[in-house]
Amino acid sequence: MKIAIHQPYFCPFLGYFRLLSETDLFVVLDDVQQIRRGFMHRNRMPDSGGNSRWLTLPMAWTSQYALIKDLHFAEDAVPRMVDQVIRFPALRGISYNLYAGLMPTNGLFVPYAMRLLRACCDELGIRTPMIRSSDLEITGLTGQDRILEICRRLGATHYVNAPGGSALYDKDTFAADGIELSFLPAWNGPTESVLYHLATKERKAA
């Protein structure tokens, strides 16, 4: 079985979904420390003036050491999200399924992110199942050791990673466990949020 493991990102670029489409199972890595200034809770797309701007989820304040699975939305997240969305005309063109996944910003972040990833996958025709790494209850391991243990628990024979991970993992170490390690080639496609791509796709289909 071929698997990929990655933190949940908010409506990421198409390259993220390339990783999903290449695997038999996608593991949402949610039991590790959050990355504050990455793409987990924000992404870019053109605003009404055609300028690339951040669409940022209204998250509650947490310690920088908080685990991803413990992140949650701010109490006033819903009106704050509405105020942001109206700045991006492309979002008027997304499907009802996507819009319904985008707007209910309440409760915990990971279930929200996974529902939205699933909605995006449905639009892209990707059927890869997803699970949460926290469900495996792995403790005391970090980095490559943690990834290897996830692969073992799931019976993986092949681990696929984004090109940026080539400096983090060792092929011989994976091979010693009977697991093939490979990396996707560099992504040369669009880098804005998948929502912009899907909105454009909807307009062309209309």
Structural features, described:
The longest helix is centred in the middle third of the chain and has 16 residues, at 109-124. The chain has one domain. It has helices at residues 14-21, 77-85, 96-102, 109-124, 143-154, 171-176, 194-205; strands at 2-6, 25-28, 42-46, 52-56, 130-132, 158-161, 180-183. The protein is 34% helix and 15% strand. By secondary structure, the chain is of the alpha/beta class.
Write the layout of secondary structure elements.
Blueprint: E1 2-6, H1 14-21, E2 25-28, E3 42-46, E4 52-56, H2 77-85, H3 96-102, H4 109-124, E5 130-132, H5 143-154, E6 158-161, H6 171-176, E7 180-183, H7 194-205
Parallel strand pairs: 1-2, 1-6, 2-5, 6-7
Antiparallel strand pairs: 3-4
Helix pairs in contact: 3-4
Envelope shape = globular
By helix and strand content, what is the structural category?
A: alpha/beta
Q: What is the terminal separation in angstroms?
A: 39 Å
Q: How many structural domains are formed by the residues?
A: 1
H/E topology pattern: EHEEEHHHEHEHEH
Overall average residue pLDDT: 92
